[in-house]
């Protein structure tokens, strides 16, 4: 990787850290605020569901922005959306208005959805033999978010006017402007040349590598979000306070992103499919820990395993996706992948509160196992198709 490329990857690492801090803080607060403001408690996770729907909806507009105006402009638009979202969240909390609070999830989700493309930008500036490492390094920016996000919640939740969490959202609104500053120094690829003949999107998504990558990615993110979103509520039912749930989310976020410093090397050594399988096994371990008990240690171990499993599966899926398309197809393939992945995440966020309220904590966790089996089946199928094609 050339020197300029390394600098760019580290700048993207910092941008990812700041944008993820807004989301990690929201995860620690969102369900608790929703449970407080909503008259119907099954709607407690609705703000997160709206936010994840906006993340999904951002996929297509983001691809158009990147294709026409380049990565830098697109990422700047995302940062501005995040600022607006934080301020509307703050207004909803200040007024005690659940509908207004849910409205803030729209621009916040659009900003976070655009930020998901930092990993793709890293893959584009890196040499092919360093691509997996660049992807995992940028995603490791979440390590900083894992510390910053929950700590912001702990130290600012009562900072303004006695309104719980108002100070937190006003503080979070100060993070995206730092992203705008960092982006001004990043050497990002310009808008790609538009091919004379575009490959039909149906042909791209029908490729075995795309199917396996999207399948592993949606299962990784969907199962993680299903459990993560409901954990603060379950901990509240078990007698734990805001600080305890914020600490558990912090442990979870560290486990999600810290492996990014070495996941790329593991993929280079053991292969992308082996890492995806390892991630599925770790996620299954989360189910076992959550079903086994309801102590602080059970929640901590479960969410740590969930974070590790997500990292291995999602980074592996992103690396596999990079093998499924030609350079001129990358923006469309990435947009289609994120639309599928975050569409599933939105569904799990909508279902999380209702499943937790109606089916219970244990059943919510056990539902992860069939999904993990499907992901492993797709990866196995893609490997078999690859061997047949090679032969």
Automatic annotation (TrEMBL):
InterPro entries: MFS, MFS_dom, MFS_trans_sf. One of its GO terms (molecular function) is transmembrane transporter activity. The keyword Membrane applies. Keywords: Membrane, Transmembrane, Transmembrane helix. Residues 201-391 form the Major facilitator superfamily (MFS) profile domain. SUPFAM superfamilies: MFS general substrate transporter. The keyword Nucleotide-binding does not apply. The chain crosses the membrane at residues 46-66, 73-92, 98-118, 130-148, 160-183, 204-224, 244-262, 274-293, 299-323, 335-355, 361-379. It comes from the Bacteria. This is MFS transporter. It comes from Plastoroseomonas arctica.
């Amino acid at each position: 990787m050339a020197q300029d490329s390394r600098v760019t990857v580290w700048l993207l690492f910092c941008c990812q850290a700041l944008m993820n801090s807004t989301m990690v803080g929201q995860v620690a607060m969102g369900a608790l605020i929703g449970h407080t403001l909503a008259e119907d408690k099954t709607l407690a996770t609705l703000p997160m569901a709206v936010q994840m729907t906006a993340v999904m909806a951002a996929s297509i507009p983001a691809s158009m922005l990147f294709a026409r105006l380049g990565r830098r402009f697109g990422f700047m638009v995302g940062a501005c959306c995040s600022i607006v979202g934080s301020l509307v969240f703050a207004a909803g909390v200040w007024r005690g208005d659940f509908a207004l609070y849910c409205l803030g999830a729209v621009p916040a989700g659009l900003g976070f959805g655009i930020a998901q493309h930092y990993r793709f930008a890293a893959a584009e500036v890196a040499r092919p033999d360093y691509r997996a490492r660049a992807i995992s390094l940028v995603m490791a920016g979440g390590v900083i978010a894992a510390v910053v996000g929950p700590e912001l919640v702990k130290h600012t939740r009562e900072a303004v006017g006695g309104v719980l969490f108002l100070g937190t959202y006003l503080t979070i609104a100060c993070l995206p402007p730092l992203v705008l500053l960092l982006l001004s120094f990043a050497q990002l690829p310009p808008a790609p040349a538009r091919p004379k003949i575009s490959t039909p999107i149906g042909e791209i998504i029908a490729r075995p590598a795309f199917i396996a990558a999207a399948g592993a990615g949606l299962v990784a993110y969907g199962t993680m979000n299903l459990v993560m979103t409901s954990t603060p509520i379950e901990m509240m039912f078990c007698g734990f306070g805001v600080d305890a749930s914020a600490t558990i989310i912090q442990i979870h976020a560290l486990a999600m992103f810290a492996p990014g410093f070495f996941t790329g090397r593991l993929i280079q050594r053991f292969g992308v499919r082996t890492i995806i399988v390892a991630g599925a096994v770790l996620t299954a371990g989360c189910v076992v820990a959550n079903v086994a008990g309801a102590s602080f240690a059970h929640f901590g171990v479960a969410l740590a395993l969930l974070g590790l499993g997500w990292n291995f599966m999602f980074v592996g899926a992103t690396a596999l996706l990079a093998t499924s398309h030609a350079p001129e197809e990358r923006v469309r393939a990435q947009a289609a992948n994120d639309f599928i992945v975050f569409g599933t995440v939105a569904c799990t966020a909508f279902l999380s509160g209702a499943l937790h309220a109606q089916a219970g904590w244990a059943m919510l966790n056990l539902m992860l196992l069939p999904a993990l089996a499907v992901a492993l089946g797709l990866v196995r199928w893609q490997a078999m198709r690859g061997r047949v094609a090679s032969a």
